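Q: Structure tokens for this one, please.
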Amino acid sequence: MAGRIVVAGSGVVRWADVTSSSPAAGRSRTRPDQQARRARIAVSALFLTNGALLANLLPRYPEIKAELGIENAVYGLAVAAFPAGAILAGLGSAPLIRRFGSARVAVVGTILTGVALLAAGIAPAVGFFALGLFVAGAMDAVTDVGQNAHALQVQRAYGRSIINSCHAIWSIGAVLGGSMAAGAIAINLPLGIHLGISAGVFTVVALVALRFCLPKQVEPAADHETPTVRAGARVSWRIVATSGALVLIAIAGTAVEDAGNSWAALYLADGLDAPSAVAATGYIALVGAQFVGRMLADGLVDRYGQRRIARIGGLVTAVGMGLALIVPSVPGTIAGFAAAGLGIATLVPAAMHEADQLPGLRPGTGLTVVSWLMRLGFLLSPPLVGLVADHVGLRVGLVVVPVAGLLVAVLAQVLRPAVQVGQVEGPDRAPVGAEPAQHHDGGDDPQRDRDQHRDDHQGARD
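A: Here is the predicted structure, written as tokens:
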């Protein structure tokens, strides 16, 4: 059985073709070296800091609103500065990553995010509060692309999926940050001291993590990335269509996540008359199930492929939340949000992974575009659901969740199926639509001819 194995040394991933007639050889995996294992811990630490930084500020929003004495409408506009900054700055990530490397970009972005959040927390006026959030959102977007790009670099060194577990660590960071904020509130710790501690601690974590990240990747040669002239037009349209589908998959995931963040407790409390303590469990169920799904996802993706896992997840989301809305009840709705969280667990990591693998694009470009446009889900979903809720009720507004699940089930076709035994995807894949290499006569050996023919067309199938 022929395939590709990872030969990792000094953090550099190389790819080689091997041939073996032993079934066991095809099933074996290359064990990641010590540097790759350290880099996985390091990039996981970056995800943890990213989740914790903003979560330290969110629980103190009511305190900031009261101290600045601002109205609800003005407060809403000020808070919207965070996603606005992210959308404005998101496209700048790719050139920064190519110049400085994904790890350095993620770490510098982490430090600046913490400083900007501190500035927002101690702002003396609403304008400075909004400005701090705007800069924090911009730096958060750059950090997000950098840490995901590095996680995918580490994943290639591993030769198997690890990106979902990194996103699970982000969820742990969010819980850690929220817990730190709750503790600070409980002991009446001043906002400036609290956010200063948060920025300082996670800056140290990020700087230590940088020491163990992989070196900057060398950008492939231009002739390796660019499709043939004859296939160029067809390839460009296919890349655009695939990128659009990946963006929609990511937006579907963020829209469902935001439905839990923004509306779960409100729907349970106002729509189903659940007590406040019970109403809070809707969001907890979604986030908890999402965390569990991400912890389990890497092994499932390795075995069944991104496509099947995402399609099943979309259907679980659509059926679980759809039934909860058709037959409304408090336990059923909580279970519906849990099903939604489980169903969307792999969507954002899958879309980012696929975008990073798009042929014909410079390193970091596909990942940056998808990450940038994905944030439209967080920006547009709340007003869309709110608009529908004002006219026909929140129960109808939450139909966005099963609709998003069905959309994912349809669009999952653009994701990769399971990698065949003995194959590992790599950066040397041929561009989509590129002409296969010419067959070279290998003599009278039929088996060698079949192997050569298969290898000639391997790149196109990748």
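A few notes: The two ends are 17 Å apart (CA to CA). The longest strand covers residues 2-9.
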